[in-house]
Amino acid sequence: MLNRNLRKALLFVLFSLIFSGLALVATYFTDLSIPGTSGYYAVIAAYFLGPLLSAFIVEKIMSHENLLKTLDINFVFNFWSLSAVVIPLVFLPLTIGLSLLMPDTTFAGARFNLMEVIKGFLVGGTVVAIVAFFAVCGFAGLLFKELVYMGFWTSSYLTGIFAALWLAPLLIITNYYDANYSLGALSMIALFVMAVLPILTFVKCKTKNIFVPSILAGILFATASFSVGLIFGGELILLGVAGLSGIIAATIIAAVIYVYNRFLTEAYKRLY
Question: Which of 29, 77, 99, 130 has CB 3.0 to 4.6 Å from 81, enough for a Cys bridge?
Answer without folding.
Answer: 77
